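Per your request, structure below.
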């Protein structure tokens, strides 16, 4: 998943792990809602072949 505002990509295979860590440490469910945990912008799925 990609945040266009932060210009950062979260690998799909790490989404669940990162979401769980954020929920445990910071009580944040941003990733579960599909939002960037840093800025809150809606995450988008990049097209195949893009990073």
């Amino acid at each position: 998943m990609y945040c266009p505002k932060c210009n950062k990509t979260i690998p799909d295979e790490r989404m669940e792990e990162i979401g769980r860590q954020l929920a445990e440490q910071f009580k944040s469910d941003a990733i579960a809602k599909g939002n960037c945990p840093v800025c809150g912008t809606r995450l988008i799925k990049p097209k195949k072949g893009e990073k």
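The beta strands are 2-3, 8-9.

Regards,
D.
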